[in-house]
Amino acid sequence: MRYIFLVFGFVFFTMVFVVGLLADRTIALVVRDACIAAVVGGLAGHWFWNHVLDAMRITVAVKRATAEAASKAKRRKKGETVVAKAEK
Predict the structure, then answer these.
(1) What is the DSSP-derived secondary structure letter of residue 68?
(2) What pLDDT is attached to residue 71?
(3) pLDDT at residue 35, as a whole number
(4) CA distance readout (Å), 39 to 6, 9, 21, 25, 57
(5) Positive or negative torsion for Cα 41, 47, 50, 52
């Protein structure tokens, strides 16, 4: 998780730093804005990564539930019950 914060912070810092230099701003303002962008970028990356992880967790849960439902349907089709399978 800390690497996501660092990567997004670095990307935002670099992006704002370059744009500030291209806009002919003073170096003090460029560095200040880039530092603020690094913190904001890190927090945005953290937020975004949490949403990506939540989406992956939901996807895995749905796939597991689908596979389990298909397995139960297949067992019912064969006439096998859950209790009969447990006794085997």
Answers:
(1) H
(2) 87
(3) 97
(4) 9, 6, 19, 20, 27
(5) negative
